[in-house]
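User: For a benchmark we're assembling, each entry needs the component sequences followed by a predicted structure for the full assembly. Here are entry 17's components. Please fill in the structure.
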Amino acid sequence: MLESKELTKVFGSKTAVDHVSVKLEKGHVYAMLGPNGSGKTTWMKMAAGLIKPSSGQVLFQGEPVSLNSRKHVAYMSTEPYFYSWMTIKDVGAYYADFFEDYSPRRYQALLQRMELTEGMKVKTLSSGMMAKLKIAVTMSRDALVYMLDEPFNGVDLLARDEIRASILQYATEDKLLLLSSHLVEEMEMVADRALYIKEGRLVECVDLETMRSERGVSMADRYRQIYGHTEG
Amino acid sequence: MLKLMKYEFRKTWFTKAILLAITALAEIVYLIGLYGDREGLLATGVFLLMLLAVGGLLVIGLGSVVTLHRDMNTKQSYMLFMTPNSCYSILGAKVLECGISILITGAVFFALGALDITLLFARNGELKALWDWVRELLSSITINGRSFLGDIRLQSLLSVSFSLLAGWLLTVTTIYLAVVISSALLNGKRFSGLISFVLFLILSWGCARLANLISGSIGDYFMLMLVNGLICLVFSAVMYFVTAQIMEKRLSV
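Assistant: Structure for entry 17:
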């Protein structure tokens, strides 16, 4: 469903993403793992069409990402990006104006679950509330692909539970979910496949169940093997 | 496109509301001065309204540039560029919203000026006589047998206003191009701001030269203004297409 071919992005003298080729299939929840600065966000932004690749390409359903793919790919940035003058209601109205797959009913349900009210002003939200709002409005779209960059950042344990439940509620067989995070334990509860990115390169893309049964290592163990200084 | 324009307006409405409120205050000062026979207030009102007419157009144009800069260089850029809208639509909405705002502001101040002058003459017959004398004097100034500044008619004033507004729109779209080049092509490079400013100056100079070549031979001053205005609109369209093309091909947010 989503594929990158020899995808590369160079910023000045730094190669953020280095010839990454990977194919992601629907019906799975992928965890994109790696320490800060490993290239996860840059890869996602290229897949969302926000950053132009230096070379290589990203394909959505076999076609290069374009205006059409933006209709079906829901991307959530790790940074807050709503206009500061907006209320939570305005955010929903904005998505309703531009995304055909947006569901106001789903938005209402998610807001209620996240304990957010429509009258709240975006600029007054705490980081935890902002994280919840981003999830609520992104998951209110009935998209084919969801890409959530660091969805658990800056939120407490209980809020994480809410966010995790909200994400999984809509992870149906015809959807592809890609979540990036450095909170490995959190991701282990959600994902069934993992991509390990190191210094812009894809180390491997693995099925977690297969890895556990065949190699006897968990997602976290493998993380330590790849990124740890003493193990591996 | 209309939805994008709606949000462009939402981003700038506060500035416009403030401009409108200050203009209303200045008009009240003018009217109190006029009908209360208080010359000081009248002069203040006239001065403020003239200042607001020029300043208002500047603020609207530059406000639009600031919004574009913010929409490309901060995280709020995702709000635009993750939607299924092409760069042509995104930029087109900005140019149209700015152009319509400039046109409406220009028209409002033109109408307000005409109304205030009419009220002034109705209140003070001597001033009307003075104005008629000035018009007559100007009409007598001729170059090659033709009146130079004389015959001040409505259509003449409109053609000058149109030329000025179109010229300002061209300046704004030229700044758009410079901002986009700075963000899309020179991002992270040293002196990108300076380079794009120099580029803006060169483009403005080039447009002025080209416009002069095209319309320089037109003798009638007011026809010249009209043609100049049209040239500015065509150049604005060219700036828009070049800017949108650069955004489409090169811009990363």
